[in-house]
Amino acid sequence: MAKVVAVTGNEAVANALRQVNPDVSSAYPITPATDIMQRFTSFVSDGKVKTEMILVESEHSAMSGCIGASAAGGRVMTATSSQGLALMWEELFIASGTRLPIVMALVNRALSAPLNIHGDHSDGMGARDCGWIQLWSENAQEAYDNTIQAFRIAEHMDIRLPVMICMDGFIISHSIERIEYLEDEEVKNFVGEFKTLNPLLDLEHPVSYGPLILPDYYMEYRRAHAEVMTRASEVVLDVAKDFEKLSGRKYGIFDAYRLDDAEIGIVILNSAAGTTKDAIDSFREKGIKAGLLKPRLFRPFPYEEVGNALKHLKAICVLDRADAFGGSYGPLFIDVAASVYPYKERPVLFNKIYGLGGRDYLPEHAELVLNELVEVSRTGKVKTFKEYIGVRE
Amino acid sequence: MADIVEIRWHGRGGQGTVTAAKVLADACLSSGRHVQAFPEYGPERSGAPLRAYNRISSKELRMHCPVLRPQIVSVVDATLLDSINVAEGSTKDAVFVVNTAKEPKDIREKLKVGSEQKVFTIDATKIALDCIGRALPNAPMLGAICKATNLVSLDNLLEDVRKSFGKKFSQKIIEGNLEATRRGYAEVKEG
Hints:
The complex is a heterodimer of chains A (393) and B (191). Chain A has 393 residues and is an alpha/beta fold. Chain A folds into two domains: 3-247, Rossmann fold (3-Layer(aba) Sandwich), CATH 3.40.50; 254-388, Rossmann fold. Chain A contains 14 helices and 15 strands. Chain A has helices spanning 9-20, 34-45, 59-72, 82-87, 89-97, 122-126, 140-155, 184-191, 218-230, 232-247, 272-285, 303-310, 331-340, 363-379; strands at 3-8, 24-27, 52-55, 76-80, 103-108, 133-137, 163-168, 176-181, 254-257, 264-267, 290-295, 297-299, 315-320, 348-353, 386-388. In chain A, the strands form three sheets. Chain A has a seven-stranded mixed sheet, with helices on both faces. In chain A, strand 2 (24-27), helix 2 (34-45) and strand 3 form a beta-alpha-beta unit. Chain A starts with a strand and ends in a 5-residue tail after the last strand. Chain B has one domain (4-190): Pyruvate-ferredoxin oxidoreductase, PFOR, domain III (Pyruvate-ferredoxin Oxidoreductase, domain 3, 3-Layer(aba) Sandwich), CATH 3.40.920. Chain B has six helices and seven strands, in the order βαββββαβααααβ. Chain B is globular. Chain B has helices at residues 17-28, 104-111, 124-132, 138-149, 154-166, 171-187, and strands at residues 4-12, 34-39, 49-57, 72-75, 95-99, 118-122, 189-190. In chain B, helix 3 packs antiparallel against helix 6 (171-187), helix 4 (138-149) packs parallel to helix 6 (171-187) and helix 5 runs antiparallel to helix 6 (171-187). Chain B is α/β, with parallel strands linked by helices.
């Protein structure tokens, strides 16, 4: 039986982690993710979980602790944001390269400088190529559901890779919403017993972690990692199917909203997708065939499936909540463009950068973009391929 | 009321405004409604003006942005009326609930509200001082909003006040807040 509650995104994720009851967590606080671990450490102190909590002096050590505990053979999780993720940078590659199924909540926040604690996607996008699986979440319910599913995906014997669950800082992490919790027992059964794979602490079967691999085999190792990533989509979908049986909530590798018969479309991540869906409904009422695609599995990016879902559109605007300095376009735009590139007949694409450092994304911004899409679909001409919106001139 | 009700709170840091928005969201969860409660996060200083928001709806709430066109405006600190236009963007039939010892007609004039807009006043600070001995007007404000808007029953609201304050405070403070909520409900004036 589901329990209906009004909680913040952070509270929901902390509760999911309590229900999963991992063996080890190693963490360091940073706004806006602090609240997750603050709540979780209370669960540890109150004996609600059996997790061994390692409090460290930096995020670099937090991820190092997770790597050690995971290699030792434990189910491991942590949480961070922004500068914290940036400080984990080299360890992120070690976690994924060592094929360790660590689960980490990333509460998306802008990067310094200038110092800013609010939500944007610069942190997650900076880590998009580090070999982790990334699931992005529109609201507290999705953050909760993704956290639970992440353990099954990460620990799948065909995958064994770390998974990052992203949600928007403050907009979701600190806002109270109605969500449905699963029962503790249901979550426990869904994630199942942790299965070890070559654990360091199995002294009967000694193994070596972190070896030196020179040009003779490094490339084969990297290709193997790349090939594992190609299997992630299928596992994510299988886990989602099981989760739907349990919860009634359906998940895909992306959310296609009113896209089948659409002529124009917006591609956008996380919380801004909800605001955009409301604007799309009001355009539909006016007879304008608008739709939306919201990636859930952002890494590995499902190029083929996204391309197939978007190829019939006349015009698409990709909205990025992060910029790629020196690259021509925002990171999401680049992936969407690559997805539709193989098609001879393909939509006209343009890119908007919005909401940096927590700048509000309002219905009027979605309407502005939709109006421009109507114009572009009619004329086939784009005035500016990339620009910032909701910004002072 | 419409499918979706949007509320904007104006208060000052330290008055319990954000807690009030949270308690209201919790209370409105009843009857299967969807709710949101969130503050505007700035530098969090005691006494600094702040805004908080609620959305309450029979349908799923997908929008994640501040409330720009509130149907209900709750002013927890009347000194804000001199520095902020609390009526900004309010709907033409908006309901204002203001913590003040003044009469609704005085506030009506000050806010220059439209003929279809309603103004309610409640001396929430005095009630708080009477009931809990501190100028924390959030509980009587909740009682007043409950009466002025019918968003939730008084019993449901009291239950959530008890639950929410019960986590942090002594029995005496909880009872004081429950009494303050009841008095806010009983003493709110319309005009």
